[in-house]
Design brief:
Chain lengths: 507, 334
């Protein structure tokens, strides 16, 4: 046996990392063997991404150490990470999509000849690397012309070009089609057989089961447990991630839904002009929308809320057809949308909690001649801070200094202060801590009990399984299935989400 | 008010230093002139700050002043238009120009910089062509109208004031500043402008018709610039179509920036802008009275503004760092 084989390839020991106001990692450890695929799972905010950034040299740990082949290394930049054979493939791809494939693979490390870029060598070496990842395109192809799955393979080729021995993949399948994901799995298996180890971060427990040799689970910035190959099961992974019985985490009481609150008839969105969307939600009902990234779920919510105009179709709220041409119309009709990106679309980050809470109600509460109704704003804000338990020193606090969960509560407060009939939620619990998540689930249950209709888009299977009274599954712009609570399970959702239509919906 | 302390301090330092260095500075005639100039700049500064708050810009203000400033005397003196017709014509033209800018920016999604840069060229050309490039003026007519720009209100009746007269433009500027400050801070529309200037998407997702508000900001800016143009013309009474108002857009923008408007939008205080606008003529006056070479005028103004902006940025960073540690302490103690 060689010297290196005695030690694990990569070892993380007692690494901690804090940011102003949060402890992201607290003494976490992890081992990665040679030719191993280690799945790292955990809820959003569990600290997976922070650890990966530390390994990739984007951030430095406050304490703890990283060992490669048994000897401690200091990874303080992306360059030193490369030098140690560690490469990170970000969830959002990091390619200059205006340049060609070869230029991207060698970006920042261009081989030179007479002081100029040696295009010939780039082309030769790129071809070799591309064949290793099974990508059959010319190195001269401009990256933006490639589908997203192939772009990802270009990133992997780039990682191989620095002789990476540890490849970290952060939710690599989140925007891939089922076929592209299968290609990726093949590539990962090939890499493993060639001696490359992979740390695979994913929310999709199904693919973890398929791919991983071992699973490490993080929860709230700490180690929650490890599972060896034969211990990997859906239930065990979930239990370690959530840290308690799932049935307690998602509190749902059965209650009788009321009249139809929102009915969508033959709605055609500009993003998917080929499909008509039909569904309805009753008052007091919580309806989940599942699907892969890019399935058209966000686009559907945006059309419902008037951010984008509908191509055709009609929307009924409370039994009346309402014309919705802009968010103002939607608000007037009794809709509210907590958008996908809270920092970009949900909040004016540099403004106070109070200003953000009041923003959507300015017109409704205005006094004569358009004067601000400050009293109303103050009353609403105080009530919402109390009701939603928003942790803020005071109502004048600038929103960007709040934690992610509290920021999201401010967005919710903005809408709940208007008493909407239908609440549209788009990935509302993404990137917030487990505690805040649970509070949001409780709030959803409470609002449903009071008769609000809730439509929530989520990419987290647990959330869909735990919260929905009814689940709509979307695939490439159309609803491929509607599942009742009795029919709902991960298998069924994934089948429909990847386009295997089991039952044709009544379109 | 707190965030304007820096600019107010700068103003006072220059003011007091000049007053000590040269006693002529505080004589009534000099101060009256200074206040009149400062007020005129203040007016156009308030206008452009409304646009800057939306994270836009208006580079056409100087040329608009040139156009309005030549058009009004040209209509009144050369075309025999009535006073009402003349004023209505320039008001409608100003509003139309603002509407034109606003629509191009919101509907065609053109960049404000590009739209108003083209405006800068177009309106200057129009002014020169319309008047045959000849000097315009009111001669000794329209005294009532000219009172708005050059009139003075004696303050001798106040105790302790002998021969000081308050320039009328100051009162006009003050009235405009009060209305603008109320609009910005006390109405929902002002709140809309501040919110959309910071984050247009979040404002739109909150049900605000952001396009309409942006158009409104450009219309108001151009209307105010047109009003300023009339006053500048009445004040000067000798209007050269090829350079009247030249560079004024930059003075107005400098005033807004000095006064605390961020070019990133969403931030601004009318009081700050008024002080910022006063600093420019003050510096020019000081350079003269302190016997500094007038050829250095632009250089000195540039250095002082740059220094002010740098200090402001450093202070902001310190405040942000302090807030971050405070938040961290609160989070770890809770």
């Amino acid at each position: 046996m060689t010297e290196s084989a005695k030690h694990p390839l990569l070892e993380v020991r007692d690494v901690s990392k804090g940011f102003p106001g949060v402890v992201a990692l607290s003494k976490v450890s992890l081992t990665l063997g040679h030719s191993e695929v280690l799945a790292l799972i955990g809820e959003n905010g569990a600290g997976k991404s922070t650890l990966m950034k530390i390994l990739a040299g984007v951030q430095e740990p406050d304490s703890g150490e990283v060992l490669i082949d048994g000897s401690p290394v200091r990874i303080d930049s992306v360059q030193t990470a490369f030098a140690n054979g560690v490469a990170l493939i970000h969830q959002e791809l990091n390619l200059s999509d205006n340049l060609d494939v070869g230029a991207n693979i060698f970006l920042g490390r261009e081989p030179k000849k007479y002081g100029l870029i040696d295009k010939h060598r780039i082309r030769e070496e790129s071809r070799e690397l591309l064949s290793q990842v099974g990508l059959n395109v010319s190195p001269d192809t401009i990256v933006e012309r490639l589908p997203i799955g192939q772009q990802q393979l270009v990133e992997i080729a780039r990682a191989l070009s620095v002789n990476a021995r540890v490849l970290i993949m952060d939710e690599p399948t989140s925007s891939l089609s089922a076929r592209e994901a299968q290609t990726l799995f093949t590539v990962v298996n090939n890499l493993r057989s060639k001696g490359v180890s992979v740390i695979y971060i994913s929310h999709r427990l199904g693919e973890v089961k398929e791919l991983a040799d071992r699973v490490t689970v993080f929860r709230d910035g700490e180690n929650a447990g490890d599972l060896s190959r034969d211990e990997i099961s859906h239930d065990r992974m979930v239990r370690l991630m959530v840290g308690r019985d799932v049935s307690q985490f998602y509190v749902r009481k059965p209650h009788t839904p009321g009249d139809v609150a929102l009915r969508v008839n033959n709605l055609v969105t500009p993003a998917n002009p080929g499909h008509k969307v039909n569904f309805s939600i009753r008052a007091g009902e919580i309806v989940g929308v599942a699907g892969l990234v890019g399935a058209g779920r966000t686009e559907m919510l945006q059309v419902l809320f008037g951010v984008q105009p509908a191509v055709s179709g009609s929307i009924e709220v409370g039994g009346r057809t309402v014309p919705i041409n802009n968010p103002k119309d939607a608000i007037h009709a009794g809709l509210a949308l907590v958008p996908e990106d809270r920092k970009l679309q949900g909040l004016v980050l540099e403004m106070a909690v109070r200003t953000n809470v009041g923003l959507a109600g300015l017109e409704r509460h205005q006094k004569k001649f358009g004067f601000l109704n400050s009293q109303q704003e103050g009353v609403d804000t105080a009530e919402m801070i109390r009701k939603l338990r928003i942790k803020t020193p005071n109502e004048q606090q600038v929103v960007q200094y709040l934690s992610g969960g509290n920021q999201q509560k401010v967005v919710l407060a903005k809408w709940l202060s208007l008493n909407p009939k239908v609440l549209l939620l788009d990935e509302t619990t993404r990137g917030i801590d487990v505690g805040a998540k649970q509070e949001i689930y409780r709030l959803m249950e409470e609002l449903a009990e009071q008769g609000m209709a809730i439509l929530f888009v989520s990419s987290e299977m647990e959330e869909i399984l735990g919260m929905s009274d009814q689940t709509l599954v979307m695939h490439e712009g159309r609803i491929t299935g509607k599942l009742t609570r009795a029919e709902l399970n991960e298998e069924a959702v994934m089948q429909l989400a990847t386009g295997n239509v089991a039952e044709e919906s009544a379109a | 008010m707190k965030k304007n302390l820096g600019i107010l301090g700068l103003f006072l330092v220059v003011f007091i230093a000049t007053a000590f260095a040269n006693p002529d500075f505080v004589n009534a005639y000099n101060l009256e002139n200074l206040i009149r100039r400062a007020s005129l700049y203040g007016i156009i500064g308030i206008g452009v700050s409304l646009v800057i708050i939306t994270s836009g810009i208006d580079l056409s203000i100087g040329s608009m002043i040139g156009l309005v400033g030549t058009m009004l005397p040209w209509l009144l003196m050369k075309q025999g238009a009535s006073l009402f017709t003349g004023l209505m014509a320039v008001a409608v033209l100003s509003a139309a120009i603002g509407l034109f800018h606003g629509l191009l920016i919101t509907r065609l999604k053109l960049q404000p910089f590009v739209v108003t840069l083209c405006g800068l060229l177009i309106y200057r050309g129009c002014a020169r062509w319309m008047t045959g490039d000849s000097v315009q003026g009111f001669k000794d007519h329209y005294d009532g109208l000219r009172y708005l720009a050059i009139g003075k209100i004696p303050l001798g009746f106040l105790p302790g004031v002998d021969n000081f007269n308050l320039p009328v433009p100051f009162l006009l500027m003050l009235a405009l500043a009060i209305v603008a400050a109320i609009f910005l801070n006390k109405t929902i529309y002002g709140r809309y402008l501040l919110a959309l200037g910071r984050n247009e998407q979040a404002a739109r997702y909150s049900g605000i018709n952001t396009n309409r508000m942006v158009v409104l900001a450009y219309v108001l800016c151009s209307l105010i610039a047109g009003f300023g143009g009339i006053l500048f013309a009445l004040d000067s009474n000798s209007i050269q179509p090829d350079n009247f108002g030249g560079f004024y857009e930059l003075y107005a923008i400098a005033a807004a920036v000095l006064g605390g408007c961020s070019l990133r939008g969403g931030q601004g205080s009318i009081f700050g802008v008024v002080i910022g606008a006063a600093i420019l003529p003050l510096l020019r006056n000081s350079i003269n009275l302190l016997g500094l070479p007038t050829t250095l005028e632009f250089a000195i103004i540039g250095v002082v503004i740059l220094a002010g902006v740098i200090v402001d940025e450093l202070v902001k960073r310190m405040a942000a760092a302090r807030r971050a540690t405070l938040a961290a302490q609160q989070a770890s103690s809770s």
